[in-house]
Amino acid sequence: MVSTTSVSDAPTRSQLTAAVEFSLAEAKKSGATAAEAGANISQGLSVTVRLGEVETVEHTRDKGLGLTVYFGQRTGSASTTDMRLEALRDTVRAACAIARYTAEDDCAGLADPGRLAKYFPDLDLYHRWHPDMPQAIELARTAESNAREADPRITNSEGASLSTHEGLEIYGNSHGFLGSQASTRHSLSLSVIAQDQGGMQRDYWYTVARDPRQLESPAGVGREAARRTLRRLGGRQLSTRECPVIFEAPIASSLLSHFVNAVRGSSLYRQASFLLDSLGKPVFAGYVRIHEQPHLAGALGSAAFDGEGVATQARDLVRGGVLQGYVLDSYSARKLKMATTGNAGGVHNLTIDPGPESLDLGKLLKRMHTGLLVTELIGFGVNIVTGDYSRGAAGFWVENGEIRYPVEEITIAGNLREMYRQLLAVGNDVDTRGNLRSGSILIENMTVAGN
Fold first, then answer.
1. How far apart are CA 311 and CA 139, in angstroms?
2. Rounded CA gap, 331 and 265, in Å?
3. The pLDDT of residue 2
4. Pairwise pLDDT comparison (2 vs 69), residue with the higher score
5. Are 208 and 216 a contacting pair, CB within 8 Å?
6. Which CATH number fits domain 11-230: 3.30.2290.10, 3.30.2350.10, 1.20.272.10, 3.30.70.260?
7. Helix ranges (DSSP H) in 168-217
């Protein structure tokens, strides 16, 4: 059993708020025309168990304040972990000294005050959980023991880790904005090794949630880690070929991350994206919808405002396969002569909707008929400027819609522009364990390089 409580106006919140307000006031006294400050405090516990024995126990507690000042179009930034008034004054002085010697940048400055958040919905992001040390160790031990007992071929473990984290962030600026967000994140992960006469294989599983009551059971995590590891035994190489490829849901979100990088403001104003000048043009298959959902209750990417205090809002980045918008903060928006999209700090629960057929993974395999199911990606061979894609991979060869055998030591290659346009189907097995949410994705054709 676990218990949760709601965050309250604890002294820590008051102290952080006072530190932000004091820093902004000091910046104004020092002649800054504008300023912004963010303060945070966090704490957590991490326990790792391997082969039944405790390997590491780590308690963390961090705090800090970062300040940016503007003297017209000149900018200076400084940070501190000391919240005493004199230390905060020193931080302001340091930021102001830097600003006086920097070059002017006509795109520098705070976010437009008209875009700052005015409403702060309860997004259910804070669920405090403080398991005592014996309980944390036992939860990790249970996950590992269930994996090791699942099959005699599970011969070793890389360890099971339980972690809890809670934090509070306060952001304010000289436009009068002051906002706070308290959040928690709890996880349990496990990696094990299986061995038979053909060799050894490893795989893992994990669960993560804001609310500890929504975590998968330790026994379930252990059994799933064992299942995923055992199915990889007997891996083979493939001959080089071209074929359809399915990216399993836990790794399909990587295709979304490449898309985000390509439509991020910094990539666009530097002209370093294969999706340059693609706004209003088809970039995905015609049924694809990719959208942000920043106000999902309890989700890992939810936020009422971004890192500049700009209100977040639900919006489509891709609708009907057509690119509808970019990922911009205030600086990159000014560079592009556009408006911020509320993405200072990143996207918020970016989701690619399941296709109209609403296929689970089994039906996606039937749809593919013959091809490659990729369950692990290795290395990073992605060029966002050209869209060229090449990564090491492991997974399973599929024939007649059925998995035939595991494969390893292969490379999959293509070009992201073509891969997005050849996206045949998105499964309904959406992985919600991160800020990028996707089901399994079927690509019509890729090059598979083997022996």
1. 39
2. 9
3. 34
4. 69
5. no
6. 3.30.2290.10
7. none
Q: What are phi and psi of 54, to 5 degrees?
A: -70, 125
Answer yes or no: is pLDDT of 5 > 80.
no
Domain definitions of the chain by residue range: 11-230, 241-449
Q: How far apart are the first and last CA of the chain?
A: 51
Beta strand segments in 122-228, E? 154-173, 178-196, 199-209
Q: Quick one: pLDDT band at residue 3, thresholds 50, 70, 90?
A: very low
Amino acid sitting at position 12: T
pLDDT reading at 174 higher than 70: yes
Which pLDDT band holds residue 7 (cuts at 50, 70, 90)?
very low
Distance CA 416, CA 284 (A): 10
Burial (Cβ within 10 Å: 0-12, 13-18, ≥19) of residue 237: exposed
Note whether 100 and 76 are within 8 A (CB).
Answer: yes
Q: What is the rounded radius of gyration, in angstroms, for the C-alpha atoms of the chain?
A: 24
What the block records as the tokens of 244 is 């359809």
Residue 137's pLDDT band (boundaries 50, 70, 90)? Answer: very high
Distance from C-alpha of 333 to C-alpha of 108, rounded to nearest angstrom: 11
Dig out the tokens for 239 from the structure. Answer: 């001959």
How many Å apart are CA 354 and CA 429, to the nearest integer? 8
Q: What is d(CA 115, CA 119) in angstroms, rounded to the nearest whole number?
A: 12
3-state SS, residue 187: strand
State the Cα angle at 213 between 208 and 219, rounded to 5°. 70
Rounded Cα gap, residues 128 and 61, in angstroms: 15
Give the count of alpha carbons within 13 A of 373, CB side only. 28
C-alpha 351, offset from chain centre = 12
Instruction: Quote the pLDDT of residue 273.
Output: 98
Tell me the mean pLDDT in the region 355-359.
88
DSSP 104: P
DSSP structural state of residue 264: B
